[in-house]
Amino acid sequence: MTAAPQVATRLSGTDLATALRQRSAEAAAELAAAGTPPMLAVVVATDDESSHWYVRSIAKAAHKVGLGCDIVDLGAGASVRQIRETVTALSDDVTVHGIIVQTPLPAGVVTRDVVSAIDPAKDVDGANPTSLGRARVRARDRRGRGRAARPPRCRAGGA
Length: 159
Known about the structure:
This protein is mainly alpha-helical. It has helices at about 15-35, 50-65, 80-90, 110-115, 130-140, and strands at about 40-45, 70-75, 100. The protein has one domain (about 35-159): Rossmann fold. The chain has five helices and three strands, in the order αβαβαβαα.
């Protein structure tokens, strides 16, 4: 008895990324046409060049799909208070729709002390403990099986 040949299906990350960028661009255009141009804010408090390069790549990807991107560079000497106040202000700003707090943070600043100030509805990375909990709950369907989870309002911009 001969086993049936197995057929492999090639998965293309490039095709998926292209489709996600297209959907993101369409959604951004719809929001902008309705008078609500989507805005992402990225809070940076480091002098780490690789982090700055990554943030620039996020901004470039955001712009390609029609998202505004405001890089808020607080400098490597920023205190936990300064970072939290900035994140809180961005959370309260109705013109900002998504927030990322870029790591690493300055020495002595504990990430959870900062990301807990992000409004979970604007938490792109799902870093706020509430966002993490919501993602975990969504990670299970009604039968308790795992499924993909994503944080609220997280939109793939190609970054």
